[in-house]
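User: I'm new to structure prediction. If I give you an amino acid sequence, what do you actually give back? Let's try with this one:
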Amino acid sequence: MSSRTLLVAGALTGLLVLAGCGGGSDEPASGGSPSPAVSSVDPSSATPSTTEGDQPDPAAATRPEPQTCYPLGFDDALAPTSEVEPVECTTEHTSRTFAVGDLDLVVDGHLLAVDSERAQAQPAEQCPPRLAEFLGGSEDDLRLSVLRAVWFSPTVEQSDEGASWYRCDVIALARQGELLPLTGRLEGLFSRPDAAAAYALCATAEPGTDGFDRVPCSADDASWRAIATVPLADTEDYPGEDQVSGAGDGVCEDAARDAAPDPLNFRFGYEYPTAEQWDAGQRYGVCWTPA
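Assistant: Good question. You get back a string of structure tokens that encode the predicted 3D arrangement of the chain. For your 291 residues, that looks like this:
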């Protein structure tokens, strides 16, 4: 007879998308803006912008380039802007730019502030799906890894000089409040199972118990691993704890049985989002099993 653990802690904070949030001014409410263009080309092929007389444009000089690496700290990754200097990707780094796009700062003829909510929403919509594409996998693959997208826009001073880009970076969560150094080639990572395993999502203890912390499966103290996600109704209002807590029971049991060496003897856990996490965009649960 199979044994199982149905977890009801509902704490998915480590899985929430890390995002730089700006608290800028309001903007015109009428009309949406088109999806900004995103570049993921080799920076060596880019042609620098110049002004009349072939003089460097100070604003263009601040535009980041794809495949640039940075030694970000955890707090740096949460900030809406970044002035951390890049480093060679052959040296230790915790952040890598995978795409650069252009903010649409004009709505109905009105110029938006770069730190306005509408401007900041553009990279928030563009960067996460671009990361799954860059890594060569699905949204589910991304959710079952410690890899996440973060994004940055120009400072107000840079915007005043004409900068209107946004930068999408990939980071890896080591454990609470820490970033994992990135190594190797990340583009197409999910098509290389051995390389992707280093960034798979695990935990240090049974979810919902003392000592639980999300870590990469490569960590020495990893003892539980995430094996599946449970899609939940994508509604604006939280469906209620009773509904979200029961949604993963069968899904997680089936996933754990398929992953277990003995399909008659296995355990599993299920985490679901809280109302607060739902409001932040977390619309799925996670299935866990002992590693």
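You can read the tokens as a compact description of the fold. Here is one thing that stands out. The first helix runs from residue 58 to 61.
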